[in-house]
Amino acid sequence: MTGDGGRDAPDARAAAEPNGLLARVFWRLTRPPVLTVAAALLLGTVYALGAVNIATTDGPRHPDGTPCCGDFAAFWTGGWFVAEGQGERLYDVDVQAAFQAELLGGTQWGWQPYLYPPTFALVVAPAVPFGYRAAFAWFGLVGVVALAGAFWALWPRLERWGPVGRATGLMMVASYAPVPLTLVGGQSSGLVLAIWTAHYAAVCAGRAAWAGVFLGLLCAKPQFVLLPAAWHLLRRDGRTLAAAAATGVVQWALGALAMGPQWPVAFLGAIRALSLRRGWEGDAPRFLSLPASWGWSFGPTGTAAAWVIVALLVGALAWLGRNIREDDASFPVFYATLLVLAVLGAPHAMYYDHALMALPMLLVCERAGSTLPDLARWVVGVCWLGYPMFQLAPQLGLQPLTWGMLVAVLGGLWALSRSRRGASPSVAMDRG
Q1: Residue 28 burial (C-beta neighbours within 10 Å; 0-12, 13-18, 19+)
Q2: Least buried of 51, 113, 404, 430, by fewest C-beta within 10 Å?
Q3: What is the pLDDT of residues 319-354, one digit of tens each?
């Protein structure tokens, strides 16, 4: 067992270190402090490369030269209408299309509709007077600070690792490819990952009201909020649900001030209008959720089958987790499965939403007593080998990430069933 600082005690090192030169070299390279230094370098390199990639992308650009990458053109559109006092026009898809055509200097790149609640528009609006480039940087800064704060709240919950191990694990998870790409690339998934992480930390700490606040904030991506909300309802977490409802009311009120009290109706109308007008065939290979992905792969029959499977998986998770509390040893695995299933069973999720899988990966590895080298192999394997496979979907006729998430949910259910039977083998804590 290693010490709290993440360094092995001499007797433990002697007992654990393998024989053979190559084996000893690999053993030392994949443990702190060498692994910690490597994780820090990986973190800095990935974010730097992400920023360079965005700066040099061959795509639509704002007249000031800033790339219109990710969904930020949509967020800028929402923020601009709010900042200019024209929020009531935001959910008019024709107005959005005309605005972005002027913004991008024509329609050759298409356009990115703002199909979100007012949350992201309200986040961007304060930076609009400073220009597109400043607003883009502001949105990325908000995401990075939010994720750092969420990791700070998560720190005490990683009980099986010492300080060096926790720092190493969090740095590696923050380096998982879609996390930096969404944080610095104008997407919302990194910010949503921060909300999920903060919600988990609040639940584990017994902060019911804060858990409700973060649950309410998940309404910014409403397709992901239904499953955790249902879980809290089944647990009869009255304070959490009350805080979530209050947070939702505050978001509605802020939206009402900016866009009028009827904005929820206008929001749903914009989704319906765009669904009838715009085909999604070009985006379909990158769908991540099971109903959307199987609908692309297998047609209407695939969509129907996917919803049946999602219903069965939700039922199985509810049954296996009905008595699990936040202080149970199996709770991190339960929560990880809940998060994966929330994304897998959403009506709509895209490949970049795989950034949310960083938290389940961390929770499962830590709770299973996995060593940091195990976590390193997970991150490197999934990030650099697994995640880019989403681009193979057109050739394969299916989305590999979707199938991987389905396997992960089934694995989580299997682990929970073993835990209920008391068959889970005990594991020694690795605090390195």
Answers
A1: middle
A2: 51
A3: 998 888 888 888 999 999 999 999 999 988 988 899
